[in-house]
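note to self: dont lose this again. the chain is below, predicted strucutre after it. 239 aa total, dont forget to put it in the shared folder this time
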Amino acid sequence: MRCTIALLAWLASNALALGADGDKPEDLVSAVAPIMANLRIAASYARTGNVALAQSEIDEAASRWKRIEPNTRERPPVHASSESSGFLDRGYEQLTTAMGALDRGDNAAAERELLAVRRAFHALRRHAGLYDLGDCIFEIAPAMDALRVAATRYSERPAQANAEETVAAAGAFRDRLLRCNEWANGEIAAQGEFRRLIDGAIASSGEIAHAAMAGDGPLVHRYLIELQSFAQLLDFRFG
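---
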């Protein structure tokens, strides 16, 4: 009996120690999550040419990142995965690279590095079995890229095949948006800002398909610009 009690006490104490050291992926995800807001803001500033503000956000993110590392490296965690440790190493390097890109005026390269960090973060969340609206919003980017390529190709050559490709890409993008709408909890789903962005994007994804089938290249282009704006704002606010 005393052996059993001792074993239970040992397990309890170690569970507390492990939680404090952030050994589980969920702990690391929770620690890094606030930094992702800095990266979303930094990417937005870099995209619009506000280099000084983008640098400020990256600098804050890097400082927060360095404060995480000692807590996770002080003692090798029992459940730590190679994904977690590699994520910390690569992430800090990518933030440094992004800052260097901004210093030399290569904003696009800085955006790519920031996106890579965010992509790795969402992969880490999936590894931990986590998924929410933010993950869904982040995942609409490939569908938006596919629609941009198709719509641009249609604008350059308004052939029937290109119109059909645009319609298919718009449908895939719309399906992603509808899925994210379902992932929004009651509080977010009721927010005016979320409704304006998600409903507007869903409606415009249908309109760009209609414009393509009608052979209206300029209207396809206008809706493409509108959809890209919706996608960026959704990511900035809810990604």
